[in-house]
Amino acid sequence: MEDFIDFLNPVPDSCFQFVNDDYQFGKKWDIHTSNHFPDVDAAQVIILGVEEDRQAKVNKGSKNSPNIIRQYLYSYFPYISKYDVADIGNIQEGNTIKDTYFAIKSIGEELLKRDKTIVLLGGSNDLAYAQFLMFEKLERIINICNVDAYVDFNKNINEKINNKNYVGKIILHEPNYLFNYAHLAYQSYFVGGHNVQFMDDLYFEYYRVGSIRGNIAETEPVIRNSDVLFFDFSAIKQSEGGIVEHSSPNGLSAEEACQIMWYAGMNDKLSTIGIFEVNTTLDKSHYSAKLAAQMVWSFLEGFYNRKQDFPLKNHPDYETFTVFMHEGKYTINFIRSHKTGRWWMEVPYPPHLTANYERHTLVPCSEKDYEKALNDELPDRWWQTYIRISNL
């Protein structure tokens, strides 16, 4: 990582102001300070801040949040003793926004090559586009889960990227290495019907906030299917997430936000998360920064409880249930893990496709999907995956 040190500012002393116990994260982690750079190879999880919000159409001030989040995160205690975490500091604002994106992409790409899991602290959520670019040269087809009250898509491909159109830039990016995009917790009054129709046309998944409130466990298979997760603080109701420029009276609760991050941590294949749009300039109480720190804590708690749980054929830890549907037109194999109780369903794999897509034919699901199939009803995410693969 020596080649990238010039991109990175060390963590300032102010981030340690609440650290007074040898068991707090601020004492346990390997942290980039003015006289020390972490041993990245010895860590499993890398914390990376980005001091950037120039492309925020609204919510200016989010670039200041990474260090405020750290103040509270460093003061927390681990639930378990093993935490191999390195905080490599902040990417400083580049001369241009492209310079910042390049730094995120380059550092992230190197970390992913080393099999590290990256926690990105923004900054505005257009930085998610640069986070997506981390995978560009890795020859991996990926799935994205985005938690956001808005669908930040604009079909005008000539418009410069910003925090209100970055999703469209990701979906339309060439070369295309995105297989599935899933959107959680959007609020209908912020999302035009044309954007919903666009996601329908591409057989992407999307879930209104009302459909997951009080039913947060149903988001677990969606999150488990993802390689990347973005989280915009606008998804959390203002009374529980603190003030951001585009926050709403409605949205996810603080507890639900932490539960989503715990599911993300538990996801064996997820490589990076990004937390964006925390605005400590507007939120003088730092309520949003405290919640963001607790969300990172929840992610780490999930990460260090990963079960390495992925179905293997003819393995005693997994049981297969075959369902014949629509008078034999479709046959779906459902697989349940005895170890965790989690479910998957198999989608037929066209023989002409390369091996890059093969892992996408085992789709995480819930027991409700199995019950739906028993009632001769095709599960939505099985059908969406089947169509996407058939059209490749």
What's a quick, concise take on this entry?
The chain has 392 residues and is α/β, with parallel strands linked by helices. The chain has 13 helices and 14 strands.
Could you say what the CATH topology of the largest domain is called?
A: Arginase, Chain A
DSSP helix fraction: 25-40%
Radius of gyration: 21 Å
Instruction: Return the string of H and E elements.
Output: EHEEHEHEHEHEHEHHEHHEHEEEEHH
* Structural classification: alpha/beta
- SS field, number of helical segments: 13
| Low-pLDDT ranges | none
The largest sheet, given as strand count, sense and whether it forms a barrel, is: 10 strands, mixed
Please, could you describe this protein's structure?
There is one protein chain. The protein is an alpha/beta fold and 392 residues long. It folds into two domains: 2-303, 3-Layer(aba) Sandwich (Arginase, Chain A), CATH 3.40.800.10; 318-390, no CATH class. The protein is built from 13 helices and 14 strands. A hairpin with a 4-residue loop joins strand 11 and strand 12 (330-337). The two termini are 37 Å apart. The model has no long low-confidence stretch (mean pLDDT 92).
